[in-house]
Structure formats: structure tokens, C-alpha cells
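Two entries, shown back to back:
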Amino acid sequence: MNIVSEIQRVVPVWVRRFHELTDSDPEAKLQEEVEEFLAEPSGNAKLGEAADVVIVMLTQLYVDGGYEVWDLLDEVHRKLGVNLTRQWAQNPDGTISHVKADT
């Protein structure tokens, strides 16, 4: 079994466990996990926090519509392709945003 299939097998188990622990939406925990990710400078701890962010997102996607890991990976692949075709501009704070097409 590949790792993505194994993760997908475990997600519904985790979702059931999550709902045994709380009635809140999984995404209520997202900001906390993102802040923990941002607080880590680098290395294995940052990787672990990134995993927590992805787990929260997978949990919410499963709750919202039964989305699977492959759905997320397909969308990441699609959006990477879109982003490569977009025009980008640097913001005053140093971040970048894609240039909105005129409608």
C-alpha cells in the first residue's frame, strides 16, 4: 500500500476520533497549528508542525465533502499549473500576489 492510500485509510478513523473529542469544526484548530508552524525556525519540528496543518485541512475537507487525499493532491497539482501561468507582483511587505485579470 502506498503512503497516500494509507493516509486516506486513516483519515476517516481520525475524523471519528476527532469528533469524539470535540464538537467544534476541525478548521477551528487551523490557526493554532499555522501559528505553531510559523513559530518553528526550521528542521524536523517545522516539518512536524506542517504535518499538523495538513492533518487539520484533510480532516476539514473530509468533514465538508468526503474529500480524499488524492482530491487535495490533484487540486495542488492543478493550482501549481495555474500559478505558473499567472503574472505576479511583489507587495510592499515583500510578499507576492497574483495580478488579477481585468474583468
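entry 2 starts here
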Amino acid sequence: MTMRNLLAFILPIILMSGCLSSAEVAIDEPIYESETVQEINDNQSYQYWNIVPMGMGNESQIVLNGSGQLNFTLELTAFFHEPLFWEQGAVNYSLIHENETIWSVELNQSIENYNFTMENMSGNITVQIQSNGSDDQTDNKPGDFYIAKAVFTLKR
């Protein structure tokens, strides 16, 4: 074997020796995912069939089993006429915790989606819905109505 052949054999081994070294292996730390402790669906709706304005109220309790991060999602649909002789109706959706309103929204004609997170929540949450409306007999549209689809997810 000549020096040239020997060099042609040894040179690739020397160049590749860096590829064979023991490199540090990255260890992926497990990503902490919070555990869902409780999921509550609270669906409410009402449609007005009366000719003159009327009010309607509803209150429900969301009982949380423990404490943690509370994710709240709401799809609120509202349709209230604009009558000739009185004010347009509306729906007001409120969340109350420890006798304090922590979130509230009022709609009279739209579909809206809301989503937010509350940290360190425990105890009960009161869902309070107040609305007023009527059924306008001068058009062919349905009576005033609202549909509230809420999901409360408690995570630790």
C-alpha cells in the first residue's frame, strides 16, 4: 500500500471522527399540562311571545369543586326588535363571585363569542341573566330572544 492510498483511507476517518464523538443529548422536560378537574355547561334561552314589553330574569349557581384556573367560554346570541312605540329590548349576562360582578355584557342584536381565564378561583359563581323584550306583530320576524351557551372549565 502506498502512502497515497494510506492517506486516502485515513483522511476520511479523521474527518468523520468528529461526527462520532459523544455529544450531549438534550433531554426534553415534560411540559406540565393542567388537569381538568371539572367542566360545567350552563345553557339558557328565552323567547318573548307577548305583544307589549316584558322582562325576564334567571339566576343559576356554578358550584366549583376545588380551586384553580377557571376558563370561561360564552356564545351569546341576541335578537331584539326595534319597536315603534318603546325601546328596543336587550339581554344582560353577568358573572358574580362573592357578591361582586366580575364580568358583564349586554347585547340586543348579534352573535358574540367570549373567552377568558380567571386565576385562583374557588367557591360558587352566580350566572345572572336579565332581559326585556316583546314580539313585534307588525313584522314576520320571530319574537325577541336570546340564547346563552356557556362552558366553565376548572383546571389545576
